[in-house]
């Protein structure tokens, strides 16, 4: 695969992105959580050489003058910073505007006294007169106008300061003059002019961090969050990720952008089922979806019970869309009749409907259907467990615990209830208590594989590696044909640091069940991390997507492998797909966050290839 210089430089650099969380739902299974996530190849660049006025590549003479004046101007600079912050806050600017005093000050401020408006100046010179001046004279007069502008800025006489900076630009298109004028516009909350002037400054000096910060704040104030994120990200890169204000501001803007987009998408999106592999994983945490309705001798099932049995058959075939259709018709048949009389499995019908609503993230409808099931049968344990899952989604773990305790009171020997209690303990990271509940569940139902899987996982989590391996080996002897068991065993081996054994376990999982995409993905991650064999890793993930084109884990892993290979367009395509596949608003926020961070850094690489090459060359 041919790689550009930009691709290679990206691979050499460290990551701005945090590690991608590749696991499935936390309350469901440990799933891929034990596989160390792929670290995103991105940009953490060395800040290249000198700067102007402290930031923009000024001449040596300017720097010497700046040092001679530093002590003298310290007090007046502080005053200008504070006045700008105060005026920004008073004008209703963002928190960043008010807090970033340094980015609100003008460059090279002089004394705070203000000369009279009739002071001698070159403002009256015509364009022809200016054109006749040599370069030294032009710069001298421009600096004189700038110094006067600084005085008016510090006195908060912004219109006059703007006028003087504008005059200075007639003599010298200095980026500092644009940036200082932008500071005046920022003080007057004229954000569009701030953006325009900072853009002009950056066209002259792309490494001008102060102009980047001002433009970023203006973009944030006008809710141009993507552009704001780009500017803050660029400032981070230029200063080797040591600019704390830029980093915290980027995080704040990213949060605003992601939450706003996710909220809008969720509001407009029709309820939809997650991937087939996700649903199958969820259903595996239960022993069954429900008991079949069986008519008494000589009698026939009614319409609702018949449709309910039909739904169970479709679920067994993993045809979940048809299962939903059948159960919705069963609910409609009951409600059309206006009574549950004669319906054998009315509680299971409403409960199964509530489960599917939950999977589609229709949480209110799910709650209503589950409440109806419990109204019909307050001791319906399956509904109590499903309602506990619903409140887990809402992060109300106290209510979850109450529901599970009630389930255990109703059926003290119910293995599913103790397994779910263990899952809640796992979420709370109370691994010792989780292990007790998994052991209890396994003892109550020796044919229930998932308590044994999770027991092995928590033993690993608390450092009992030999116990964990023993638990998995015992389980594999009891369940030799369970693909998911080998898949999770491989994950533990991978995190332990044994990629070869882990890969063997994943291969066994695929051999046992080629319709499960997770072991393909986990094997791909293990192969890529241990050997860097990108072709094989990509082939495995493509196989996973062939099995389940909407497998969230496969899409996420593929995006990160592409990114490590410097294939940014392909990575962004997968990240956009991950946003579409997100099951909840929280997951969508996370997916948008990765997409936008990657896009901002890729934009930097495309817009500043020369700067990137210089910076990367300086690192070598």
Please write out the topology:
Blueprint lengths: L4 H8 L47 H31 L4 H5 L1 H4 L22 H5 L3 H20 L3 H14 L3 H13 L3 H14 L4 H13 L3 H14 L5 H25 L7 H8 L19 H14 L3 H18 L8 H14 L3 H14 L4 H13 L3 H14 L4 H13 L3 H14 L4 H13 L3 H14 L4 H14 L2 H14 L4 H15 L2 H14 L4 H13 L3 H14 L3 H23 L1 H11 L1
Task: Put the structure in a nutshell.
With 620 residues, the chain is an all-alpha fold.
Q: Kindly name the structural category.
A: mainly alpha
Mean pLDDT reading: 82
Number of strands: 0
- Spatial shape: elongated
Total helical segments: 31
Helix content: 55-70%
Give the distance, in angstroms, between the N- and C-terminal Cα atoms.
24 Å
Proportion of β residues?
A: under 5%
| Largest sheet entry | none
- Write down the Rg: 32 Å
* pLDDT < 50 runs, ≥5 residues: 1-103, 109-120
Q: Top keywords for this entry?
A:
single chain, 31 helices, 620 residues, disordered N terminus, mainly alpha
Task: Give a written overview of the molecule.
The chain is an all-alpha fold. 70% of the residues lie in helices and 0% in strands. It is built from 31 helices and no strands. The protein has helices at 5-12, 60-90, 95-99, 101-104, 127-131, 135-154, 158-171, 175-187, 191-204, 209-221, 225-238, 244-268, 276-283, 303-316, 320-337, 346-359, 363-376, 381-393, 397-410, 415-427, 431-444, 449-461, 465-478, 483-496, 499-512, 517-531, 534-547, 552-564, 568-581, 585-607, 609-619. Helix 2 (60-90) runs parallel beside helix 8, helix 16 packs antiparallel against helix 17 and helix 21 packs antiparallel against helix 22 (449-461). The longest helix has 31 residues, at 60-90. Mean pLDDT is 82; it is low at 1-103 and 109-120.
């Amino acid at each position: 695969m041919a790689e550009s210089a930009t691709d290679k430089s990206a691979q050499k650099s460290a990551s701005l992105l945090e590690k991608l969380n590749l696991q499935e739902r936390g309350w469901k299974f440990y799933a891929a959580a034990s596989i160390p996530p792929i670290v995103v190849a991105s940009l953490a660049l060395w800040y290249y050489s000198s700067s102007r006025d402290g930031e923009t590549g000024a001449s040596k003479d300017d720097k010497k003058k700046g040092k001679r004046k530093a002590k003298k101007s310290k007090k007046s600079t502080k005053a200008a910073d504070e006045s700008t912050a105060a005026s920004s806050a008073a004008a209703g600017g963002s928190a960043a505007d008010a807090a970033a005093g340094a980015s609100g000050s003008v460059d090279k401020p002089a004394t705070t006294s203000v000369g009279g408006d009739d002071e001698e100046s070159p403002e009256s010179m015509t364009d022809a007169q200016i054109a006749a001046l040599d370069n030294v004279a032009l710069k001298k007069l421009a600096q004189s106008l700038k110094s006067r502008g600084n005085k008016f800025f510090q006195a908060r006489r912004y219109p006059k300061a703007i006028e003087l900076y504008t005059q200075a630009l007639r003599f010298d298109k200095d980026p500092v003059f644009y940036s200082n004028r932008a500071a005046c516009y920022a003080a007057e909350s004229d954000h569009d002019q701030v953006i325009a002037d900072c853009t002009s400054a950056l066209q002259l000096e792309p490494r001008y961090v102060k102009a980047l910060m001002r433009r970023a704040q203006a973009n944030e104030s006008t809710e141009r969050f993507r552009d704001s994120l780009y500017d803050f990200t660029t400032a981070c890169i230029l200063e080797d990720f040591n600019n704390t204000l830029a980093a915290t501001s980027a995080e704040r803007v990213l949060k605003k952008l992601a939450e706003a987009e996710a909220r809008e998408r969720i509001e407009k999106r029709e309820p939809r089922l997650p991937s087939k592999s996700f649903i199958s994983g969820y259903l595996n945490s239960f022993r069954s979806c429900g008991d079949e309705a069986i008519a008494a001798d000589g009698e026939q099932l009614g319409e609702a019970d018949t449709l309910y049995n039909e739904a169970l058959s479709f679920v067994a075939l993993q045809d979940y869309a048809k299962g939903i259709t059948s159960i919705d018709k069963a609910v409609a048949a009951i409600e059309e009749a206006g009574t549950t009389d004669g319906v054998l499995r009315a509680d299971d019908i409403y409960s199964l409907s509530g489960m599917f609503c939950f999977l589609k993230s229709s949480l209110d409808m799910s709650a209503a259907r589950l409440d109806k099931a419990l109204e019909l049968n307050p001791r319906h344990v399956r509904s109590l467990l499903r309602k506990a899952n619903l409140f887990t989604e809402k992060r109300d773990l106290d209510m979850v615990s109450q529901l599970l305790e009630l389930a255990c009171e109703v059926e003290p020997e119910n293995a599913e209830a103790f397994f779910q209690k263990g899952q809640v303990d796992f979420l709370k990271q109370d691994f010792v208590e989780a292990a007790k509940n998994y052991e209890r569940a396994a003892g109550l139902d020796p044919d229930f594989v998932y308590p044994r899987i999770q027991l092995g996982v928590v033993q690993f989590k608390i450092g009992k590696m030999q116990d964990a391996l023993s638990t998995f080996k015992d389980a594999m002897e009891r369940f030799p044909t369970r693909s998911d068991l080998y898949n999770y065993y491989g994950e533990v081996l991978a995190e332990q640091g044994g990629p070869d054994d882990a890969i063997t376990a994943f291969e066994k999982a695929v051999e046992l069940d080629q319709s499960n995409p997770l072991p393909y993905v986990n094997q791909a991650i293990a192969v890529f991390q241990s050997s860097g064999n990108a072709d094989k890793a990509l082939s495995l993930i493509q196989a996973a997507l062939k099995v389940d084109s909407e497998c969230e884990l496969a899409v996420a892993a593929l995006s990160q492998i592409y990114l490590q290979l410097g294939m940014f367009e392909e990575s962004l395509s997968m990240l956009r797909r991950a946003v579409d596949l997100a099951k909840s608003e929280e997951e969508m926020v996370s997916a948008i966050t990765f997409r936008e961070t990657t896009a901002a850094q890729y934009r930097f690489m495309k817009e500043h290839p020369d700067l990137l090459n210089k910076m990367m060359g300086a690192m070598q």
